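Weekly puzzle thread! Below is a chain. First person to post its structure in token form gets bragging rights.
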Amino acid sequence: MSNATFSRKPLVAAVLTTLAVFSAGAMAEPVNKDVTLTVGTGANTVPNTIKDEKTWDEDWAKTFNKDFTNASGKVRINGQNTDKITISKDEANKTAGKLTNKLSSLTLNVGLDVAEGGTFVNNGTLEANKAITVTGSLVNTGTLKINNNLTINGSFDNTKDKGKIEVTGTDANKTANLTINGLTNNTDLEAVPASVFMGDITLTHATLTNNDKGYKLKTEADKKEGEDDKKPETRVRVTYDDITLNEDGNFVNNEGALDSGSSLTITKDAGTAQINGTSTWGTINAQKNGAVTVGDKGTLSVDHLVYDHDAGTSATIADLVSVAKGGTFTVNKGFTVGSFAENSKFDLSQGKNQYLASGASLTFGKAQAFKQIDDNKDTNNGKIVADGDYNKGTVTLSGYAAEWKKPAQSTAEGDADTDKKGSWDVTKFGSVTVYNNAQLEISGSKVNDFADHGYTPSLSLGSLTLASTSLKVTPSFKVEKLTGFIKTALEKVNDGITDDDKKIKLDTSKWTKDDYAKNLEKFLGTLTKEQKEKFTTSYDESIKDETDKLAIGEATVDAVQKITNSDVAIGSITFATTETSVPADMSKLDTTVATAEGDEKPADRGSVNVDAITQAKGTQTLNIEGKSRVEVGSLSLGNGTLNIKGSDVIIHKTDKINGTLTAESGYLGLNVATSMADKVKADTTTTKTTPNFVLEVGAPVVFGEDAKVTFGGVATTKTADTNPDAQAPKYGAQLTFAGDTTLKFDAANFNRTALFTAEGLKGKITNNGKVTLDGDNLTWGAYKLFENFEQKDAFTTEEGKENLLVGNLTAADAWKNQVGNNFEIKQNSDGDWMIVAGGTSVEGSGLNVSAKNLVSKIFAGERSTGADTQLINQILSTGASLQEISSMINSVTGLGAISGVKAMTVDFQGYTADMIEHHAATMPREMGGWWVQPLGARLKTDDLSMGGSAYGYSLDTYGIMGGFDTHLKNGWTIGAAASYQSGEADGEGDVLPVSTDVKNVGLHLWGSRMYGETNVIGTLSYVTTDGDVTMQLGNLELASELKAKALSAGIRAEREFKTGAFTLTPHAGARLSIVDMDDYEIAAGTTKLFDVSEDKATIFEVPVGVTVQTPSFMFQTFEVKPYVDVTLRGRFGDTESSYTLEGSSTTDTIDYDVSGSFVGDLKVGYMSTYKNLNLGMSYGLSAGDAGRQNHAIEATMRVDF
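Winning reply:
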């Protein structure tokens, strides 16, 4: 039977035979890849002395064992008890010994002596079971495992971030020692000695002892430029990176020793760190009490001290560090207590705070950690739970009282003025951070009697951050699970459909983690809106049903912080959230189901992350009570709770409030500039009765949708959006006046539409008391108190009485006469409550402004619809008089107009067209050719009208005009010319000063012909003007970029009459000019204020005049012809133009003058001719209405080619 089987399956037999052969080979002796050597001479030895350069690496080891590899082989060097390897210099051959180890595993069972002049470099892993002495130099970039003694007398470099030293004794009774000895001579050194950089060291049953006392350079070598009297300083030679003391590990800084390090960690089973010299550290982590001792001559300085174990029932900093009398210990930058035992208390009251430097930061508690249970035997397997204990502890800061420090010198007689001089000594901390497992209590920290020195806080905190933990869980589902959810969702979509062909079907059998999201998104795109809604509802419900099993929100840790009976200054208070992320494998929650033997498990198609779930795991509450006075630079209340009772709190800057704020009694200032010292001084000098609660709002406050704010009483638990009626409106921010409240505000800082604004959903106001309004610096118009709140009936009682009362309201100085005592509280058509000072429109306000709609909008209560209304509203409060306010508003809203660019364009086109006509009229009839004419003029007008203001410009412009003329056979003379002028114009009139950089370019055509005795001249000109205008408004610069263009056509007729030796040439003409400007913006910095569009201006001009030419005379070789011209012009048409000013919510059309109606010109000059050269010069004066007075000087040179 067996033979038959064999004959039918020869291939199987062959395979089995082959496997048997390989199996037999596998049972053979393993290949030895190790190398074992001894110290001595002969085979398999290493020399006991190295005086040249040698490298122990893979190639070297292969000379002893060809099978050695650095990845898996080991090298051991053995010897007798007294055997050692010495690395030294060779005096005879002038060489220095250097041994470099590059082996991944080297064990020395012999000693290693790096003598003077020798160097040992360890780039691999060295385990030393015998002593190592370094008198020369040792460089370590690998790992040194020291199981014996390491003595350093020379240079040592344990390279940062690479080298690592592990010093381990075999047990507590047989320790290993790492000893650093000092220099034989450490003073008056010529140069910096070799350093000892120890890097990262771990000590177990071992002691690190430093005896090095640093060094001093010679005086001259230690000086720096400009330090003639400097004495040499003792410098650190021994430095460490991270030192860790494990079980029975010790650190000793001996008397006189000097060292510094990055971090020192003393674990719970370690020995101690003993400081008898001077030791400086970045961080000390103490995981046990009594971790550090400072001797009577010791000095320990650490930047950050971490109480790195559970604080007990009466914990203090002294638990960690014991300081003998005469010793010094200082924590410079920060102290942390991260965890607490049950019912623990950490005392940092004034009597227990002897080691923290002024300004040191404090951290109490830590963010809570979480994990997913991964234990099939645990009934809670898969659930999210806390990772480790999170006990709450109390931290006390109490008994701090500022001290008045008099100056060192004082008069013996006790002069009163001198004795008053001095300053308050205030205890200062840097940033203070408190997590949910810590409860901070600041109490009894104030000065009982300030005498006549003025108020001071007794505690100063750079910042106070109250951090609560937010858990972010990212669930991941197996694709097979998610496709099951899809199947369920499709059943919902197909529910009620009986025709199988019309049912939605989807094959997900090929979906994997790599294409799941893309495939699902593509499928959803094929559904109708109704189908998609059914599908996503079912799908989301399936995911929620599963993720609810994680039990994420079942346990929270809330914290309450307290400031009572204390005077505190805090740079900022921030209610922050620290996010802890945990991935959740949802398959851990699945119940395991046994399958029948032989059944195939479905293929694992991977897992897909779904939307993360975020859950707050605790809240933070800060209570300020017990007659405390707290001054805060800024408040960020995005979550959490701030309660104020019977205390004075000033907050200079408030971010959007989206948490809970309750101010029951006392005083609360939000966005106010007043300091606590000023308030205390004012409170001590007033005799009026202080109301139960005073709320002062320096600038408007914004509430988020989740804000719950209560003033004047206890917070209510009733919420505005929990109405069971599904049709009832849902509200956002909730603002409650729970009792009588005095509401003070400064209208000068009203930089929003209302004093209180709810963002997002409409807020809800509830009032249970009387609210009395005190306000300063009101201008004309309405001030909304609440924006985006449901407030219609909030301040009206059932009997119809109003509980919103006028208190002490005063107008700004500029408005006192206009407003008087005319204040009232009313509601607008939308039910918004507001204070009305005087009236609600510009009429009757006493202002003479052009943008009436804009200003009336503000006066109606819309003071912050955009940057434009905010700026104008600010001007209303800051102007010294109504006239000044009007001028400022007209200047801002008319920036483009008062720049004069349009008016200057009218002048430019008229001026250049006159030059062309003058050129055509005065050129010799027989000449033609190229000509050039330098231009210089001062253009000025200062009484153009814009609304209630007068504006103008003065411009010194320089430029050039040139062209070409020719005579045609048909009797016509024609020419073409171009002109360019530029200058900087300054504003004129009673508006704000403006400055405009102006450039004008023109193209001109002309032609003339004699009709009998009459010369007729026609001109056509096109000019463009670019103007960049700027105006300074306080610290704000307003600007616009303006572009104008003008097209003009004119005709002039003239005829000469001889009168004796004189020639009279009367002339008359007409000119039509069309001036247009591009649309432009008025901006403040990068913020747009207005869009402006200008109307075209069409201006007609009728010039009439006479030219008187005196007899010509010869000057050298030139024939000179003097002349005088007088011209009168009448201007008609759109000398008054208009522009449309579009702001954030208003549009105004504003008229303004671009030209006067009458102009008189006087020009005096001469023309001279010599052969084909024509030279001329003239002075012109142009004056008229609107304050016009222009002066021009022109020179002409013409060459007839």
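Puzzle host: Confirmed. Bonus trivia for everyone else. Residues 901-922 form the longest helix (22 residues).
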